[in-house]
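RECORD TYPE: protein structure
NAME: Neuroplastin-like
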Amino acid sequence: MSGSLLPSALALSLLLVSGSLLPGPGAAQNEPRIVTSEEVIIRDSLLPVTLQCNLTSSSHTLMHSYWTRNGVELTATRKNASNMEYRINKPRAEDSGEYHCVYHFVSAPKANATIEVKAAPDITGHKRSENKNEGQDAMMYCKSVGYPHPEWMWRKKENGVFQEISNNSGRFFIINKENYTELNIMNLQITEDPGEYECNATNSIGSASVFTAPGPQNQFN
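PREDICTED:
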């Protein structure tokens, strides 16, 4: 008889433990509710953009609120307001990113909501190594603005056609980090490596490319 009771006792014990992990009644109602405007895609029109957040309900006293972009608080946005707006007067690719409206409460955890501002990549800088000779190492890089962060691709012109460069080629090493890419060429071969290179940045909104000019045959510029 005792053997048949053990499973029931064990099941009851597990039920009690599981029940203690469930939130109490009304827990969800105590969470702050934030209503936001929709995501924004920056085009070429340069029309002003206004981001909006509204703290529609909270059981806690609001202390202050502010805006952040990519985790950094935006200057002069801190105030004590449940209804928040942030205006981008002339939106460009460098204004894209993750915007958060952040609310701080008295004696309660802060709350925030996210609005994504998206834009096609815009390559803002690139550089190639200069005065490199046979057997040395060379480095080229590109950096961009735009959001989401792009997928990067390097290509080299071979017989009039651009061919993709990969990390599997032995002497070429590519490092990608968000809005930055780097192409390292080890042990330069003067007969093979000079030429025209392209870095391409592509995200869900669009793409951009820059090219380097061919260098001298005895150097890699």
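COMMENT: The chain has a mean pLDDT of 83.
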